[in-house]
Amino acid sequence: MNAQQEFICATPDGTAPSQPGAYSFADDIPTLENFTPVVFNVFFWGINDNNGYSAFPLTENTALSAVAKMNIEFNQFGIFFKYYGMDFIDSDQYYIVDRGAGELYGHASIFDYVRANNLRKTDAFNIYVPYSTLGFAGAAEERKRVNMVMNGFSIINSHTLLSHETGHCFNLKHTFVNWHDNACEHVTRDITNQHYNADKRGDSITDTAAMPDFKDEHYWELRDMGYTPEEADSLAIPYKYIDPVTFEYTGTGDDCLNPPVAYDIFPIDVKNIMSYSPAAPQYSKKFTTGQKIRMHEAILEDSYDEFGAATTTFATLYEPYKGSYPLYYPHPQPWPMPMFQPGFTYDFIECCCEYIQPAEYGDPNFSVEPGHVVKHVDKYLTLYNQIYHPNHSAIIIHEIDQAFGATSVQKCYDNYQTPPILGGKVIRFNDNILNANVTITQKDSTQITDPQLIPNLDNGLYKIETNYGNGVDEETVIYKTGN
């Protein structure tokens, strides 16, 4: 798969007209903290061939892992994502999306195809995952829209590509826009300097540095030296001027002023999510404060009315993405337990009393024992079958509490209900070993629940079977040696 070689973004920076006053160009923490946290649904579409086959199929675990990455990156500044489900599209044409053949933005655009064929959720972000892609690894449909495409390899193996494309959806440009022409962003960050243009050039974010495309900087250096495109392409070293360990910029690049001003680039600038830089340890690449503000402002502007449509409530984050809550204990096995999406830090704490099904969101009429954590889940946990809501507990999601600056305990589930007991049997193993030499005594519902049942048994080895009205048969083996 070509996409394995590099994680290449194909989203064009282009121009996207904005409503007057929609963007403040601020880059301070107090401005960022003024935005109200928000939740978006996210739906995934695996693209198979016409026969429903994929050599790299989308799985639920892959989709959950992707949502976890999004939440871990974006929760820090009040943007949350709810896993909304997944489905499949069978299409030979888009099984491999070829950018050069016009299947990304051209006459055969996948985004036009899914709109024309109603293969999108209008109330969610839509992420399309073909087997592979040619000429790119990931792309957003357009800045300020909610649809993306990313090949299966990249959505699993890239730590930042999904966050990068989501950043484009929220109206972020690449940090190096127009770096190699006369309309470049100038290095100075002194707003009194006549050459200051950080709010108008490059990505128009004032706290990202003026910088080159680190991946292609050497290529353009060779071109400027007179090499042909073919020669430069064969000789160029991607990320030549980035130290792969420290992420320090070692080049001698400068801006387009006359005389030019040398770049003032630090490792934190290199590791910006919207730059092109080498792979880094997971979650070590970041957005700046100004970029975070820009994203929130884009959500409020909502140029295409897609962000509002994709928004959901915080209550949904306290709902399982699959499974159900048993009405009785014991319950049939296996039971599809209520499963919760990864990427959050959960504490399920002891609660009371008598909620056969979870309390409604916002219900304050239950008590909790904050010091008794029934189950703790780390946001980095990858064993997704362990993230479920246990009985006798309520839910704390720490990232939500941090976003709102207050502790919220929700959805107490405290079920002591047992199904009707129909009867049962007492099986005595006559040889006092587990074999087929047994004596079976049937018991009705009163007899099998009699507190004196076991005290009245003779010494020996028994299996006591209780039959419940929900189809559960509960078995208990005892060895009685005295009263």
Automatic annotation (TrEMBL):
Q: Which SUPFAM superfamilies match?
A: Metalloproteases ('zincins'), catalytic domain
Its Gene Ontology molecular function terms? metallopeptidase activity
What protein am I looking at?
A: Peptidase M43 pregnancy-associated plasma-A domain-containing protein
Specify the species.
Answer: Aequorivita lipolytica
